[in-house]
Amino acid sequence: MKLISIKNNFGIPKYKQIISSIEKAIDEEKLVKGGRLPSINKVCAEFSLSRDTVLQAYEDLKKRGVIYAIPGKGYYVKSTEIKIKQRIFLLFEELNIFKEDLYNSFLENIGKNVQVDIFFHHFNLQVFQKLINDNNGDYTKYVIMPTNLQGADLYIKSLPANEVYILDQTNSDLKLYPAVYQNHKNDINDALLKGKHKLLNYKKMILIFPGYREPLGMKEGFEKFCNDFAFENEIITEFTNREIKIGDVYIIPNDRDLVSVIERAKLQNLKLGKDLGVISYNETPLKKVVENGITTISTDFKAMGKIMAEMILNGKKKQIENKCSLIIRNSL
C-alpha cells in the first residue's frame, strides 16, 4: 500500500508533500494509531530525495505530536488528530492569579488548531533543565519564562533557536530571542515618579526585597529613584515582626508580605494611606477592595499574553517591552 506521493515541478516543497501524504493516509485510515511509517531510507530511495528532506517532514510531524520515533526502529503514528498544526511548550515559573490572566489571554488569542501544553519550573534550575531536556524537539514553539534563574540561558540555547520565545523577564544572555517582557528597573522608577506627589507625604521608603524570586531590576529602579530625589530609604529582605513607624511607605513585591504589613498596621492601630503608605506589585481584583483599595505597580498581563500569541501567529521576531502603570488607591 503506497502511502506517500510526490510530484516533481509541482510548486510545493517535497517535504510538505510528504507531510500532506502522511496526513491523507491517516485521514483515510491507511495509517492508524501505532502504525509504522515508511523508513527514511525507503522514501529517499523511492523518490530520489535527500535524507534531510524526508527527515524535515518527519520531524515536523513529530513536533506536532502526530508521529513519534523509536531509535533504531523507525517512526510510528502517535495521534490521528492531524488538524493540530502547532504544539506549543509553555514554561511558567508558577501559576498565580495574574499569570493565570496571562495564560488565558494567550489561549484566547493563539487561534484554533494549536495545542498548548503548560509546565512549571517553580524557580528550580534542576526542574527547569529537566523540562527543557525532556521536551526538546517535541514542539513547534517554545515559550519560556526564565525569571532570574542563573544559568537558564544555557539550557534555552539547546533548543532550536528559531522556535524559542521569551516571556515576562529577559536579560543580556537572551537578547537574540524574540520576547515580550517587563523592564522592571524602568517600570518601578517610572511608577514612583508618577506617585512622587503622594510619596512626599512620607518620611521613609522601604522596599521588601527577599531577592529570591524578585527581579533585580526592581531593586535597581527603587535605588535610582531614591537617590535621584534624596528620599530616605531602606531595603529589607523580610518583614517579620518589624515595627512600623508613622511616615513609612512600603513597596511590596510579594503578597504574603503585603498581608503581614496590613496585619501589623492593624495591630499598631495605624491607618493605611494616613499613618503609613503601601504600594503592592501586580494588580488583582482583590486589591481593588482590600483596605478600601491597595495602590499597585502592575504590567498588563492580559496584553502580554495577547502580544505573545500574535507574535507567534504572525511569525514576528521582536523584543517588545510590555506597558506598566501605577494604579493609585487609598493605601497611598
TrEMBL record:
Keywords: DNA-binding, Transcription, Transcription regulation. Residues 12-80 form the HTH gntR-type domain. InterPro entries: LacI/GalR-like_sensor, Peripla_BP_I, Tscrpt_reg_HTH_GntR, WH-like_DNA-bd_sf, WH_DNA-bd_sf. Coiled coil: none annotated. This is GntR family transcriptional regulator. Transmembrane segments: none annotated. It comes from Flavobacterium cellulosilyticum. The keyword DNA-binding applies. CDD domains: WHTH_GntR. One of its GO terms (molecular function) is DNA-binding transcription factor activity.
